[in-house]
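Hello, quick one for you while I still have it in my head. Could you read through the record and tell me how the tokens relate to the sequence? No rush at all, and the record is pasted right below.
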Amino acid sequence: MKQAMITKLQWLMTAVFFVAGIMLLCRPAHAATTAPTRFTITDAGSVGNPDVILIPGLASSKAVWDGEIKLLAPKYRLHIVQVAGFAGAPAGANASGPILPGIVEELHQYIVASKQHPVVIGHSLGGLLALMLADKYPTDISKMVIVDALPFYAVVFDPHVTVDAVKPQAEAMRQQMASMPDAQFAAMQPMIVSGMVKNADAQKLVAASSVSTDRTVFVNAMFEDLQTDLRSDIAKIKTPTLMIYPYDAAATKDAAAIDSIYHDAYQSMPNVKLIRIDDSRHFIMYDQPQKLDAAIEAFLK
């Protein structure tokens, strides 16, 4: 009787493990994935259309892409990124530790889990993140649109600068901005933003996003931006890319010098086309929305 009971229990345990194994094998591959912790995604457009991921820049709201959302939604499925900690969004996992590599990893996981092969459009820091993604995961992206971003931002100040050389200044900027009283930080924004966007209404939007950004996330992401150098990597990035940069004659009369900064920065990258949009500052989507839309739409066709 006892032996029969043991045999029956063994049979039941074997059946349980067998069924459990079948369930594990049959479970969808994406079931183990989790929602991103370093950004949120808002969907627009229609499922089934080609996928486009839009990434805003440092301390920016996803609302910077509102014009492009209106343009692209009829023909594409859009995935609009809001980086955690930027523009009033909760800091989440970006509250401590490195930020940019974690965002890249979660973008990759999101793309794989949702079985996409998207176009990625990034502005400023968002453009750098797109380059980092294409560099580390070259099969993730079908095309890229980089709006005013460089493989190493510090070349704006010195074309021969190195990560080590700029580190003390970047750290000093981080500490100064982190310790600045809120009122002083807010008071500085209109002056800073006026150099980044000409449109008066947009200046208010950009300034408000900066002020509402978590300060720790802001300064740490800025520091990482200044410490990320992809100049030796971009020759390996073969993703078809449109790189759009601005020129404002009111800021500098030497258009050739501006051209040189961007063309030199991307000269080793294959499959990249550079377009300059005049009468614009950093936020091209606000200063020259029609020209930006036309360039993006033509590239995506």
Notes: Residues 1-32 have pLDDT under 50 and may be disordered. The longest strand covers residues 39-45.
